[in-house]
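Table S4 entry, Cation diffusion facilitator family transporter.
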Amino acid sequence: MTVKFIISHFIKNYDNINDKDVREKYGILSGIIGIIINLMLFIIEIILGIFTNSIAIIADAVHNLADVTSSLVTLIGFKLAGKPADKEHPFGHGRMEYVSALVVSFLILIVGFEFIKSSLQRILHPEPVNFNLITFIIILVAIPLKLWLSHFNKTLGKLIESSTLEATGADSLNDVAILGGVIISLLVSYFTHISIDGYVGMVVAIFILISGISFIKETLNPLLGEAPDPKLVKELRKGVLSYDYISGVHDLIIHNYGPGRTMASLHAEVPCNMPIMKIHDVIDTAEKELSEELDMFIVIHMDPICNNSAEVIKTKNSVIEILKNFPIVKSLHDFRIVGEGKNRKLIFDVVISFDNKISEEEKEILKNNIDTAVREANPFYSTIITVDQDYTH
């Protein structure tokens, strides 16, 4: 049964993945199928584990039970994330998807720690494992089931761009390696009568812990405020610059309130000599059209700049050449000249990459060095320089 066949039969309008209701149904479908498969494997493996006296099989059985809980929390999380915005949460409940994944992560960690203790006890006090052909065959059958479940969740995760579902798929793939270890334990016990069950159980426990830590990392990043997708940044910049009179974009910040719930604010550079109502109409149109096209809420602040003054053009080009001597500086924006006579000032912002983690003191040093270089080349001006950090890749 292919993934597409299941999706097309259980999700109405499954192609419309930008629709929040459709996205919710993808998460619910993943949760239901995960519960069915993992619950079935748990029941089978817990019976076999007790029957064969194998801590490795019992460990994987309980891991499957944790996966059942994981699928249940994922299902509830997607359901809560689909709730509409309210007075207390004006941007909706989309981050509940991340919160649910975080809960799952800690559940997995608890299971991992418990089985490290159990496996350590089995290593210190080994007991024989009872090999059984039926047990062996059932575990072999479980491997393709887990492989399919991994493929299913990863496919759904990529379709709706859900890190939660992709991480769930990766966890199912870990289960395949764990089952391989259980098979090795049974074969070694059968052919050599040497018990490596505790050691295999320890490996299973470590896999569980790694999986839990990976989940935590995946879900903490968007909750803490990770850098936006470079592809989205590129599309947004390109979209804004496609409108008449907009010549530059800077101070772009993107906020993630959950999958499909994104807000962006940016500054658009426009000619200073254009009628304000005409420019406002362009900005307003850009906000509305791009918000609909990119499925996000966009706010654009307009920055008037003077591009037709020979003095501004000449001085700006001079500053751009000077900034080439400062590799840490990525770009220049909001360049303008104000004042008269001896009080003329060059005002501009320079942008440094977020990878260049510099202190406030180092920023002051950078501003002073740029100021010195600019004033040597342009002695008739003083400067007011702002150092901006780039919040995108």
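The mean pLDDT is 82.
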